[in-house]
Amino acid sequence: MTQKITIDPITRLEGHGKIEIFLDDAGKVSRAYFQVPELRGFEQFVVGRPAEEMPQITSRICGVCPTAHHMAATKALDDLYQVDPPPAAKKLREMFYNIFTLEDHALHFYFLGGPDFVVGPKAPKAERNILGVLGKVGLEVGKRVIGMRRELRDLMSYLGGKPIHPVFGLPGGVAKPMAPTEQPRFIEAAKKGVEFALFTLSVFGEIVLKNKAYVDAITSEMYTHRTYYMGLVDEKNRVNFYDGHLRVVDPQGKEFGSFTAHEYLEAIAEHVEPWSYIKFPYLKKVGWKGFVDGADSGVYSVAPLARLNAADGMATRRANEAYEQLYATLGGKPVHYTLANHWARIVEMIYAAERFAELAADPEIVDPKVRTLPTATPKVGMSVVEAPRGTLFHHYETDEAGLITKANLIVATQNNAARIALSVDKVARALINASTANDDGLLNMVEMAFRAYDPCHGCGTHSLPGSMALKVSIRDAAGNLLREIRR
Amino acid sequence: MSSATTPILVLGLGNELLKDDAVGIRVAERLQGIFPPEVEVRSTSLFGLALLDELIGRDKVLLIDSYIPEEFIGSEIQEHNLDGVGEAQSTSPHFVGLGEVREIMRQLGLGFPCEVRILAIPVSDPITFSTEMTPAVAAHVAEAATRARRIVDRWLAVVA
Lengths: 487, 160
Hints:
Chain A is of the alpha+beta class. Chain A is 41% helix and 16% strand. In chain A, strand 1 (17-23) and strand 2 (29-35) form a beta hairpin.
């Protein structure tokens, strides 16, 4: 029997994410919890502020995906002021956003997913990091990733002043047009981006798919959950990061429903647990049935694998070929393997690069008309984008002067919170017990369960020495701490 | 971005919207305009691998950052170099530590600065949205700026 343990969410997490693993009297896992600290006071902070500050404010919530918040806030302002940006502005925004997604996904694969697959989940701890990846793929590849990343950030700096916290999106458009003289530079960078994304797919194929142990890990029941999936799609149900409507498919892959940003409150509700600051969104029509998966549970997933599952394909040629290859290899749609997120992320890299290339070469993108001035009285603005980590909602309400009276965000990691909790719990139960509690490799496999989602703790704090803010605790049935690992 | 004429970088790290997490930025603001042209003073909310962009091409870097002490009351400003900072501490590029950045830059031949010092200011609350720091944290800004100035002056004296 497990003694009742109360996890006090008021305990300061000090900016750390936390995994708490509880063992029962037999030394087996009775429950594992993944807790994410939530930043405090956001709604109170923004009330009374001009809504036009939101692209700058929200991009500072999170140091991991500020561009996603910036874009979601910009689109929410379009909605708030009922203004339609000119075509060139929409294309610049979408291009900017795909550049960001390409860079972010590349970084994730080589430096986050990489240690799990390129080096191996049970490799010695000293090798299971970015440096181990460089050792495996070679320094030239490492230089290529860093170089490409810097080039993409330079492009974002040209458009937005700086890559992080850009001054770019405005209600009704963007801050500045692209000069025709700059277009060749963007076209060339996009071409390199496509080449690099395809190269990354080949790296994944060589290092991961040709390794039976890795493929077995990807397809193992331990890393499988059969949930609903949600993602933003265009009018032809193809993945789109910037705009479209939300589409939800059930665990069998059939369309369950679709909705616009304005309808998110009718589609999604949030469940609260006493042990966590984060709320757990679920599909209202299905209902909250606990931390379980299956068609009767309202738990859903977002992010790369979910986006591909929710769509009927990719809108660009090479990405769609990669999409088809993924499903042909993994047994058809939908794919429920959490670790397949890493593969799906590469498919999305290819799409981001190809879409970047399409937009960079579009003659209309250098049109100097990039803003429609708002004239309507603001009241309510809602938006949705696909952050690299999943669906992101922004919702503002203002008075007639455009001062915020209410704001609500549902961030990507929140959308995935229930499924992340399921994943951590399932892997911990499969691997951890009293005798394996000291096995670093096994503990790493628990962390793999949530790393596949690339969760954003969202705290953006700068505590020394700059290590990842995560604490894993293993406790016995009485709640006594057996082992604690800080990363 | 780095410049050949600014071999010394003073970089305040922080988030201006997260209460005490702004302290690194506030210290950097105090240091604006007081150094000769070979010193660049900047602020950033970047962290992890993104710090790499700031370090490339620099000879010496002073990072001004916050830290969360076990007990805030009685905690003091700390000064560190990179001795004892391990190479591989994180499993995420979002939270890559300086040790890892150093090793990545060395392996890729990107020229890690020959000296990096860290001035760390204790904070009480870096996770509440506010543009006002805890008064006790704000009180550290002047001392931190003085100590930062001493470090940079020492570097400039060596160059001279």
